[in-house]
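Re: that backbone. Tokens:
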């Protein structure tokens, strides 16, 4: 299923079919362009999802071998260790009545961090906790930037003047 959507004067094609999405995302000719983003978001996100053109191709080539099936099969023991430790910890939380209340979202985030730490760095989540905490803070900054309205040059309107844009508006400048 495809549909055409206009965003202002820019046409956008929305693709829903899995095979077509795969074809678009693996296109090596550079016809797929990502929408423009707030420069602050661009500064905070440097991963493959934000790259385009030759930079995207180089990064994609670099990470693809890590996700081959045989490599993933070799990671199963690390996945299992992380899951078993989580289940044991959860079993320890069960009260005398045989139940407990648990917010699983942070638990699953920590499990993900633990699996990444074990498979990529040979350590566990606790040893790399600070790095994951910094990544969470970075995500918060990106989300705040995404929610804000970006007006090119708005920051410069204030520089050197000591006045806020609202002050300038009131003064008729």
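Recovered sequence:
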């Amino acid at each position: 299923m495809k549909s055409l959507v206009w965003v202002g004067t820019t046409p956008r094609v929305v693709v829903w079919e899995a095979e077509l999405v795969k074809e678009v995302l693996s296109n090596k000719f550079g016809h797929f362009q990502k929408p423009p983003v707030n420069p602050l978001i661009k500064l905070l996100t440097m991963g493959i999802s934000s790259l385009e053109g030759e930079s995207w191709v180089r990064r994609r080539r670099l990470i693809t071998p890590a996700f081959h099936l045989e490599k993933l099969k070799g990671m199963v023991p690390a996945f299992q260790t992380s899951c078993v430790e989580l289940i044991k910890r959860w079993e320890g939380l069960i009260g005398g009545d045989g139940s407990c209340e648990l917010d699983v979202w942070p638990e699953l985030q920590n499990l993900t961090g633990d699996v990444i730490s074990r498979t990529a760095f040979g350590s566990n989540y606790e040893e790399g906790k600070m790095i994951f905490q910094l990544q969470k803070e970075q995500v918060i900054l990106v989300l705040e930037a995404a929610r804000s309205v970006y007006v090119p040059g708005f920051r410069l309107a204030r520089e050197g003047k000591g006045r806020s844009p609202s002050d300038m508006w009131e003064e008729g400048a």
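The mean pLDDT is 79. Strands lie at 2-7, 10-15.
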